[in-house]
Structure prediction request, 387 residues.
Amino acid sequence: MTDTNDVLIFDTTLRDGEQSPGATMTHAEKLEIAELLDEMGVDIIEAGFPIASEGDFKAVSEIAAAAKSATICGLARANYKDIDRCWEAVKHAKSPRIHTFIGTSPLHRAIPNLNMDEMAERIHDTVTHARNLCDNVQWSPMDATRTEWDYLCRVVEIAIKAGASTINIPDTVGYTAPVESADLIRNLIATVPGADEVIFATHCHNDLGMATANSLAAVEGGARQVECTINGLGERAGNTALEEVVMALKVRADIMPYTTKIDTTKIMNISRRVATVSGFAVQFNKAIVGKNAFAHESGIHQDGMLKNRETFEVMKPEDVGLTGTSLPLGKHSGRAALRAKLSELGFDLADNQLKDVFVRFKDLADRKKEVFDDDLMALVSQNETGE
Ligand code: KIV
Ligand code: ZN
Prediction:
């Protein structure tokens, strides 16, 4: 399936994201986030883990029934009970998907205490069972990046033959590196019989801070589905951040000619809603959605931005749903930004007046982290009254 440059976006904020300790969302919040994901053009929403609890089952069922265009997916371990429960929840969707998985690395095989042959048989049986219920089955070998190469090829082939149409290759513990990530997908597609008939997905975790780079590299290697979460929400250091992958593909289309259906102007709103409902605040310097991602304080940067926005911005804030760049005033700011801000507030000062206000402004900025509009207005009136 590498003959297309369309990359499907699979969002798992409501499943892997919600697995972050403390990120639990209420039923109404999950429905709201699912609606926003659907509206922004996410192709597949992983809405939850139906066997995990009654609440998860109900949320997945209702999200499935309400979805307008996204495929709705639920997660299931490799057993019939999980898969049946998952199907009961997702079957209400116009386009349902069952996602079933099992840990295939030596460490993970030891947990259910299955040898390689026993696990291979389990994969065959459970994927076949899922496929008998639903036309759209995704299969994942959890901890794929630490699974022996020959065994990985063997189980991927079994899952494809049993009817999986999406093969997801998870980097469950954020262990892989970009060059490996690309090669892994490329080599699987080149080696496994039937691989060209299915979509390969990449699912990266951010333990070493490489989730976005690894996901993009996997796309280079032939993956055509990226699994991600809003704000990179997820267990430990989180999952690949949806907004980073989507904006990287948009901004660097010159070297990564892949397209997604995401309406990027909806990014900021959903980022804020996910931060609020999960209780996980977005760090100030987070790429794309952090408070400072489009803010410039230093004099040189502000001066450059006032002359040409491209001097210090590789994308437009409007493209992610912001109204514009922000030029907060602080001790690093220069006269050009102060003049621009004062003019925005309705004060067009003569050069000598501006000089005086600038001296007072610097003095204040040395004492305060940020100088706000009210502070500036006070400085101007002090100047006028000669205080
Ligand atoms: O990280 C992971 O391996 C997962 C699987 C369940 C796909 O989230
Ligand atoms: Zn995961």
About this structure: The chain has a mean pLDDT of 96.
